[in-house]
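Sample pair:
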Amino acid sequence: MFFFLSKTLSYVTLPLVIIVVSLLLSVILRKPAWKKWFFRTGLGLLLFFSNDFIANEVFKAWEMPTVPFSELNKKYEWGILLTGVAKSTAEPKDRVHFGSGADRVTHTVQLYKLGYLKKVLVSGGSGRLIDIGEREADVIASALILMGVPDSVIVREAETRNTHESALAVRKILKGKYTPDQCLLITSGYHMRRSLACYTKAGWPTDTFSTNIVSHKRQYTFDSFVVPSLEALGMWQTVIREWVGMLAYKMAGYI
């Protein structure tokens, strides 16, 4: 039930959903005062959430930054790669399709080939409300192999549905053989706060390596301040989904 409610709540709190609902109500409602209020609200929210400067500032404050490979001061037995970047419904099925977070995978390959990781534990099964049977850890593992990471150094954890379950499963796999300081947690910068909180709560506080950095250098330009940006709207939707996830996990005692 928690899994269903957390997924549903993350959808209904998305800015685009709220904007569309407000504009629809401005058309459907008959009372002039309400029509005007919902229209102004929808338009105001659209202008606010599509502002690149505001969205970028919020995202920069939220996502955990990454570091150059040269600044990593130790090597790790395990890289814990969290899934959530493959497109499970994409066709054809004879290849791996990545979404915007492909850096999680490619940077893991770089970490391995540069000698910072000895092994890779890919963690994540199906995070969909309707399980279609495909396990993303298996898909990601196949991509790692294609990129030159030997199958012998890859371990798949393909049954968990969210980050909380992933933390518990990974701890169970590694505890007694390794320690948290021998592990490097790899996920997108915007997802790292929730991920690290889950792993810490589970008793497995690792070092972190953020990927897929979305925010950009601050720009004082006309485009950034005035021109509506579709990318800005997407940034807000991503960060609000993470905020909702953090709140839901906190209420459930996962972090």
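The two ends are 18 Å apart (CA to CA).
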